[in-house]
Design goal:
This protein is of the alpha+beta class and 152 residues long. The chain contains 2 helices and 7 strands; from the N terminus they run H-E-H-E-E-E-E-E-E.
Amino acid sequence: MTRSIDYGNLMHRAMRGLIQTVLTDVSQNGLPGSHHFFITFSTLHPEVQMADWLHERYPEEMTIVIQHWFENLNVDPQGFSITLNFGNSPEPLYIPFDAVHTFVDPSVEFGLRFETQEFDDDDEEDDDDEPPPEDKPRGEAEVVSLDKFRKT
C-alpha cells in the first residue's frame, strides 16, 4: 500500500486551528482595536445550530459579522457558539469549524477560504470520487509560483 501526505487536509486543519485560536482569544479578551470578522459558513452542515427562521432565510450559506455587538462567544475544539443580533432579536448560533467557508478580518486585509465540501454523515473521510492515491498514475511534478497568491 502506498502512503501519501494529504497536504490539503493538513492545511485546512491548520487554518481551522488558527480560527479557533483567534476566536478563543476574542472570547477571553474581546476584539482588539479595529479588528472584526466576516465568517461565511454552510447552513447545510448537520451540526450547525440556528433558529428555524434564520435557516429558512439562509438555506445554504450565511455570513455573520463579529464586530460591535455579540455575546456568549464560546469556543470548543469542534466549533464555536455565539449570540448575534438580528433585527433587535438576539439569536444563538453554533458553527462547527468544518462548516466555515471563509474567515476574513478586513481591518488587516487577512482572509482564509476553504474549498466547499459536501457533508455526509456516513462517510466523512471520503469527500470525492477520486481513486485512492495508490491507484492514481504518477505524473510529472508541477511547480507552482507563489506570486499568484500574493496580494499586490
